[in-house]
Amino acid sequence: QQAEHRRVAAREYREMTELELQQKATGAYWSWVAAGQAYAVSEELLELAQQRQAQVERRAEAGAIPPVDALEGRRSLLSRQRYLVAARRKVEASALVLGLFLRDEAGDPAPPGLDRLPEGLPTPEPGGDPSAAFEQVRGCHPSLEAPRAYLEYQRVARDLARARRGPQLDVRMQVSRDFGEGDTSLPGTVYEAGLVFSMPLALRTARGNLEAAEAEVASQTQDLRLLEDTLLTELRDAASAYEAAAERYRILQELADTTRQLAEAERRRFDAGATSLLVVNMREQSVGEAAMSVVSAASELWYARARWDALTRCEVAASGGVAPAEP
Q1: Measured at the alpha carbon of residue 125, what is the angle toward residues 123 and 129, in degrees to the nearest 5?
Q2: Contact 33/121 with Cβ under 8 angstroms?
Q3: Sequence-ordered list of residues with C-beta below 8 angstroms from that of 49, at least 6 positions apart, any chain
Q4: DSSP, residue by residue, 262-324
Q5: Global pTM?
Q6: What value does the CA radius of gyration of the chain take, rounded to a whole number of Å?
Q7: Residue 295 half-sphere exposure, CB side, CA atoms within 13 Å?
Q8: I need a surface site. Which of 15, 155, 190, 236 has the fewest CB within 10 A?
Q9: Cα separations (Å) of 26 from 176, 303, 306?
């Protein structure tokens, strides 16, 4: 029985390790996607600055705008080139991390290229009600099944220690036969049976082992209860994190749309000579910052959903465990 419970505990600990690896892989994937989206935003802003710089230089040469506007455009162009280099470096770094989980046929890391980035950044659906999910997974989640199996192992050890404290009755059976030359009076085949009764006299060791086993069972029982409470708390926290990220994502999307409209209006004012290029660049910089914030909020949504999926993972189909969403 102890060996069987240890086998179950080992299997569940393996499942816990797989869940941890899946969470790390999911986090690495969405970090790479977010870095790719940030790179796309930086590239868009740079292309916009490059297109405008040629117009600005022509207008400055014609005397339609002050020469300082051409210098401001040049400064903005160089600054956006710098941001693009940093964004590309971040994509490459996140791809290298993702490559640890994405392997080729030979088993070597295979970092993905920019061509494998998804179009846009979708958002996941919410996980569900934490209390209902907890009732579904409390009987099959690896984080509970592993210590539960170890608790059963300790209970068997306690029962064994309790049995060893009492008297012992052994049944013995024996068969013997003499071969070769010898006294003719020797019997042929002999069958013997008997009972052996023993009573431990020094009970101090046996009593101590039993008390230690009972204490271990009581400790493991309380630890298991704490782990159940922790799982429910983490489910509630994952749901709360998702709701906060979803609200933040909605606000930042609206902010990004408003900021983009302001930048377009400011560009029209600049074309009409009613504002300076410095103000236009500041508006466009705000557009980039808002777009980056939207990407960050979307990534937080996926992190929260990945955490929910790991907390509601069950191997037992009859338990009704919530299946993880595919990224």
Answers
A1: 145
A2: yes
A3: 73, 76, 77, 80, 281, 284
A4: HHHHHHHHHHTTSS-HHHHHHHHHHHHHHHHHHHHHHHHHHHHHHHHHHHT--S-GGGTPPPP
A5: 0.73
A6: 36
A7: 21
A8: 190
A9: 69, 8, 7
Q: How many helices (H) and strands (E) does the chain have?
A: 6, 2
What Cα–Cα distance (Å) separates residue 25 from each residue in 32, 94, 102? 11, 11, 9
Token pair 């990004």 is at which residue?
A: 256
Contact status, residue 23 vs residue 310, Cβ threshold 8 Å: yes
Task: For residue 193, give both structure tokens.
Answer: 């049976």
Nearest in space to 36 (alpha carbons), one of 83, 80, 95, 124: 95
Residue 168's H or E segment, with its range, is strand 168-177
Alpha helices for 100-189 (secondary structure H): 130-137, 142-165
Question: Contact, 108 vs 195, CB < 8 A?
Answer: no
Q: Is 183 a residue whose pLDDT tops 70? A: no
SS3 state of residue 197: strand
Banded model confidence at residue 315, pLDDT cuts 50, 70, 90: low
Tell me the per-residue pLDDT of 211-258, one tens digit each, with 9 for 90 and over: 888 898 898 889 889 999 999 999 999 999 999 999 999 999 999 999
Residue type at 9? A
